[in-house]
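Q&A log
Question type: sequence-to-structure
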Amino acid sequence: MKKATEMVTMTLQEVRKRKLSKSEAEQLKKLAAMPDDQIDTSDIPELTSFAGGVRGRFYRPVTQSVTIRLNAPDVEAARQLSKLRGMPYQTYIKGLLHEALVREAKSVAGSKPRPEIRS
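Response status: OK
Response body:
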């Protein structure tokens, strides 16, 4: 019988900032070095069917649709570059915009409060 452990609730930011104790780091190293067939998964029920599963039940993207006017040469350049990367041009433009916003937020971080941009 396994001993009961205390449940701790943390935000994602708290988890990312948390430092592991020496014993936790050692446990992770041992587990990473262990072959998969030696890891005890007996307390995890085996999933045999996805019949009752619901796709996207816990994932809700935070998106907002907007219309933006772009110059035709810029759109054409994005289309050509996105083809080289094997992706839709709107996804390519969205990625470029996101990278530029993150870069800009970092450059002005010292002078103003930084807006929250997820990367």
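Response note: Residues 89-107 form the longest helix (19 residues).
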